[in-house]
Write a structure and sequence with these properties.
alpha/beta, 5-stranded parallel β-sheet
Amino acid sequence: MKSDSLANRADKDNLIYFLDDDLIYLKVVSHDLQKQGYRNVRSFSTAKDIIEAVKEKQPDITLLDYHLGGKKTGLDVLKKVKEISPESANIFLTASDDINVAIATMKNGAYDYVIKGDTALIRINHLLGNICSHRRAEKKNQAVLWYKVSIVFLIIVFAVLLTYISYLPVE
């Protein structure tokens, strides 16, 4: 139970960037994420600002709006984020229920596509939990793999040493 608590605390330290041109929605979602315990949430209202921030420090997760009110779309931002920070998980949170937009974002590496509405915040929190859980499992699997590789290496070294010792002349 205690390790779950530590894992959840570590999950809450993930760096989350949120982009939305709707300043009110930006504040509502950011506030909700902080209320849920996420401590590293940064909000951006322009594509340029979030891209500059990604260049400075790569986020663990981005939440992106599709329609940004300018020349760039969230899809343009996604492509740039994936180029700079391929390990970031990217979720679209948008009012657009256009299936072609959803398909395009998923084809370009979005983790998921959430339509703004009554259950959007619940769905975002669920997705963030899934991403964090998946990353924890990946780290654990990587640690186990390194442990196994180390054991095999030690066995090989030990076998080579035993073989070498057996060929030494006995005096």
